[in-house]
Amino acid sequence: MIPDEEERFRAMKKEERVLRALGQVDDTYVEEAAPGSGARKKKRWNRWIAAAACLCLVAAGAFGAVQLGLIGGNAGAGGGNGNGITYMFYAGPVFPLTAAQEETGITAERSLGYDFSPYRSRTETYTDSEGKTVSYEAYDAKAVVTDEYVLRNESGEEKTMTLLYPFAAGLGSAADVKPVITAGGKPAETAWHIGAYGGTFSAPGSRENGDYSQLNSWEKYRALTEAGYQKTAFDSFPDLSQRVAVYEFRYVSGVEFEAAPALEVRVEYHIDPERTTVLSYGFNSGTYDAETGNCSRGRDMMSPEAPGYGETFYLIALGEDIGEFQMNTFAGGEGSTPFETFAAADGEGKRPADGRGGKTRIKTDAAEAVRYECTLGEILTRAAEQYLDVYEKAVYGEDRKALLYEVNREEFVGLAAEMMEHMRLLPGHQKERNTQGELEDIFSLTREADRVMYLSFEVTVPAGGEIRVAARMVKPASRDYPGGRRNADRNGYDMVTGLGSVLTFAKQTASVSNTDAVEILRQNFGFDLKKGITSVELNLDEPRYFLEVQKKRN
Amino acid sequence: MEDQNIVDLYWARSETAIAETENKYGRYCGFIAYNILHSREDSEECVSDTWMKAWNAMPEARPGRLRAFLGKITRNLALNRLEAASAEKRGEGQVPLALEELAEVIPAADTADRIADEMALTELLDRFLGSLTPEKRKIFLQRYWYLSSVAQIASNLGISQSKVKMTLHRVRNELKQCLENEGIGL
Asked: How many domains does chain A have?
């Protein structure tokens, strides 16, 4: 302790010293005791736990972030499979062009170029807490990739076909990495097709711990492709026309955060897990006892500025309706004078047994619930709009919101429904369910999941002629995270030569350019920057090429 | 987003770090600050100051447990702010009640061999906490680290308020005994 602090500590009352010293106890104990860190018997969850898990997929966006130029290098051996390393964030390979038709009769020559100019240092500034402008060296761990094709029609007939250009992305990062396609030297008019979530949930129940499979290696993309993944981008979405019971909650007029910041609305109900699935939106805690079917969901009073929530929050019953339920409001406990109005009058409401079918209003002193029925699609759309409008804007700001908005609402809901099917939330899979059905998590995972997307466009290749097609994109590097990990500072770029493509390739080449700010650490391309070998012909029997670069240290 | 990713963003000086921290730990830190300060405005300022402290601490620091790292900053800032506040304001929130309760753990002056500084006291508290059952430890720290009310603790852990009060009383006695056995005065 520095002398001033010691003096200050000495000047405190004895009990204050204990209180202060407690503040420095082991982090493990602090975490263990964190409110909401778990009740016994019943499972208690917090929407942030799962959200945090699925948000780890956001790394595509995170590593679009500027990297500090002063991060030191480490050329030690990677921890992977001897053929490049296994990354914590895998950006996915560059895929080859393919076609919707199985037989095209077209031969293709491909040349793939990596331009590393984004690694060149530039000076950026930020303002520190004292208002000083601090400058630092920055660069982007990205490569500008140009994937060019010459398509030759050696037949005597003109051929018109739909080409598909696949790329790896999540909905949240797609707008940053979406390729720009040109055909015959002109911008191609493309349609965007989004493949399904490509991971798996390793076992029923595992989703609660955020344990699910990511697409973190090229082999996983290969397995998906070989299992016919491309079809998922063109399939129709799950049917959402089934009727569901919706319980829509809102605070009663006059209940404000300022007056009751610790207010909690808690709903307790019972379900037969075999017959009912409950989805929620806007609640932030809950319990679920699989043995008894007793459940609760709670929502704390949120500050008006808190991200993620609008006025309403929902419980949605799929299958058989929820039975009798109780809604209580809690004020935040003893010693909290301003809340006593609510504490003294903890309200309680019970849904009448004959309430099914009609509108039922339940009211406590602080909140009210209205029951109504609609289709699953309608309520998912309503919740998704709330999520996209409020949550996205609050977390990522207007710009990110605008990027995600390239995916229309209907499609977003369809993709979320696919995710729900994947999580076995839709009827028929009650026993195998992986989630408690918080829609925020489903929407978040829908947004951040790794996928393969396809840009489709039509081309006509004249008889005996050729056409040039090119895709240009900014590709983030696959990375391990900086900060002591042995693979830190390795930036990986993968490409696959033929995976998923129906085209017949006559030749493929690869090149690198603007490499002055990078050094190559590992590769199987055969580039040699010192000898000036920056372009190589690829062996078409080699399914995958990898390249790892590192920002040169000054 | 995982903690390590958030820390990476701090290290990369990306302002997204603040948004992600706020998203993930805003409520957690807000809870700590509010329990101490009992004022929404002050709590919000305190939480904002927490992000600023975290921003200035990283790089150099690379917290292994981001939640506890942020929580400690908030707790300290909130207690400092409370110390500087008017007597009227200091009377609100959980701190005065917690201090009253903690006064019970102070050993009689004649049992002390030495007066503990903060570091020595923290070391002893760590050992003491390690000796408690997880449930007792949670109840004790929820009260005196998080400054939660007895009702909040009961609700959070799914136990009765009387059990919380009884456990706190016993643990305070055990702590007093521990301080006396170690011959540590305050």
From this structure: 2
